[in-house]
Request: fold
Amino acid sequence: MRISFTQSGGFAGLVRGCRIDTTTLPPDDRRTLESLVESSRISGEHEALSGMGRDLRQYEIVIEHGGGAMRLCCDEGSLPESARPLVADLMERSSPQAPHRQTVPREGVLGAPGRGDASARWGRFEGEVVARWSDGGREMTLVAPFAYVDPQDVRWDAPTGSVVDGASIPRAFWSLVGGPFTGLYRAASVVHDVACATRERGWQQVHRMFFDACRCGGVGRIQATGMYYAVYHFGPRWTFEMRATIVAGRPEMARVAVDETPPQPTDAQAAAVMAYVEAHDVAVDAVPALVIPGSGVGAPGGGERGEGTARRPGEDPADA
Reply:
């Protein structure tokens, strides 16, 4: 049995972890650890954060055994009681780790075998997400350049020195889809954070890029659609205006991004969104006009928009 454990977050923002092959342990130690694994009831892949705050410690446990793998990703608030003894044991075995590093597929992930290359379908990531936690543990600063090239061959750069904190993804959704620094969508959250901070392109294009980047990173269609709805209807928004400014003593007109971010959703509204998307076959192109009951989303001026379009098989290019 091989166990990989990482603890991150917390007020100090430190990263600790360990990698253990139980066959190398003394017999008694091996039996103790494998018993804790069995008692933890970890099975399959489970990822959920409590949404109680980014200052909570986050845990990721990957267990490889018998030709299969199990994974648990959670925080102090959502850690199952049955897994707490195992986490306590692994914490004692852990040591400080290098700055958080995530390697992502350079060519993305295919929606299904034999349906074209990933670059043409979902784009591609270039480089690795290599970041350093801030002293407060709330932000990460990129220490190497990273980029995403979308299916239209538009490049989205996240340069060295970029500061990311996941704030471009409404917080109420964190407990439903996982925090921005965990899981398959973390690379997408990095480029989305940077694009929402620089505001060089329109917010609609930025949020659609987030959907494509999620799919490139391996996020399933249903979850990616729910996350796209979250950022499109509740994420950062801005409009561009031309304003007079002074550059080197001379008057010039400059384009300025004016913030128009809508109110943040409640936990109940976020839950309504994800429940609806999971229960209905929502076409990704229907997301901008879709009003989900209980989500608090309505049309400009207070009128309601339609309930979106039902997707016919083969109609949606995001179907995979």
